[in-house]
Write a structure and sequence with these properties.
Man6P_isomerase_rcpt-bd_dom_sf; nine-stranded mixed β-sheet; mainly beta; about 325 residues; Cation-dependent Mannose-6-phosphate Receptor, Chain A; MRH_dom; signal; 21 strands; globular
Amino acid sequence: MDPNSDTETSAALGGNATQDPVDTLMNALVGQCDTLRTGWWSYEWCHRKYVRQFHIDDAQGTLDPVWSLGQYNHSTRVNATIERSDSMVDYFVGGQHCHETGEGRQSKVDLRCCTEAEHKVKSKKDRKSSAIASFASIREPGLCSYEVTICTPMLCGAVQGGGKNHTALDFLEALQGTCFSRHEGWWSYEFCYKRHFRQFHLVTVIDAKGKTSSVIQDEYSLGKAQEADINSSGADEAKYMVPKISADGSEEGVSTMEFEYTDGTTCELTQAPRGSSIQMICGAGDAILSVVEDYTCHYKVIISTTALCKHEAFVKKTPSTKSVSCRRS
């Protein structure tokens, strides 16, 4: 920092304070943006970066005009009540100059767990939503001052059950009956939580009426959930929670949940059942990220899910900060 600077400057320095759990959950939203189209105007929110308003010229494929509704400034925590879980309010200031007020436009963004009604939108084709956060609404309660609601599962269940400490297995219960798929060239893969992981090849067939459909031609079970895992409860969390390891072999500072799926289709090369190690991590969507055959007829599978982002052990922590000011003496 230049000691001769005329300008007062704020800098972030690492601290030792414990980070608030809700702040930790919010880290999973880094890099997330979403848009909402309401007639002539469209709006875009990017987590702790900016809020903007623009018109989409469909004929030209351009945005004109584009107005800033504020750049990120600071946040406050809104504690839970009986009616709702915790929420976080982000403030955005210094946007496009407002002629009516003589100041820059500003926005207050309320990030919270929303009801099903708040998730509904009038026209799906006019709206693009990310899996981890959605732009639910915007209003202008005062001249050039905006209030935005962002729905995020990160805050659903953050405070529930009369103060119960939810475990990772509790949060994963939301995946019961859910399956994820991934296509890689010839093969497709399907993961169903607490059920199975399989590999198959799809072919397209045309019936006598010219209607096309996809059917499975070849299929292999790459493992089934073990009985003990199917019947596991929150008390068993430590059995499955392990540190996430980076490519260089170091720990990344977050946890993963690991399950062994066994008793798959017999392998022709080993004459033993196929099996898979399922590694589940916090991510921006529910998906199979990768499938690698780490040794003959055994597979290492990485699954991303927003469910684990509700547990602070699975979200990468950012250093706590404090501000200092420097002035020319």
